[in-house]
Design brief:
Elements lengths: L23 H7 L1 H9 L3 E9 L5 E9 L14
Antiparallel strand pairs: 1-2
Length: 80
């Protein structure tokens, strides 16, 4: 299962460090509802997120995200 986030991860929002490393604990708290939806097998999930712009203003981004299943294939038998 996978989903595409409704916004890029950003250091200004606290999701990344200034060296672009993911702050996993922060992500788990902020996007926990999406992780739960993935494990619960839901087809879509609504989320609203507060974002901070470079000039200091704040705004809100909301979306209903589709959660999809990745199609997997069996390995092809090697040719003799």
């Amino acid at each position: 299962r996978f989903l595409i986030l409704h916004k890029e991860l950003d250091a200004d929002d606290g999701e990344l460090t200034r060296t672009n490393k993911v702050r996993r604990g922060f992500i788990a708290d902020k996007y926990g509802v999406l992780v739960e939806a993935l494990y619960a097998g839901r087809a879509e999930q609504f989320i609203e997120t507060v974002v901070k712009f470079e000039d200091g203003r704040t705004g809100s981004v909301s979306a209903t995200l589709k959660l999809l299943d990745a199609k997997t294939f069996s390995p092809v038998k090697a040719a003799a």
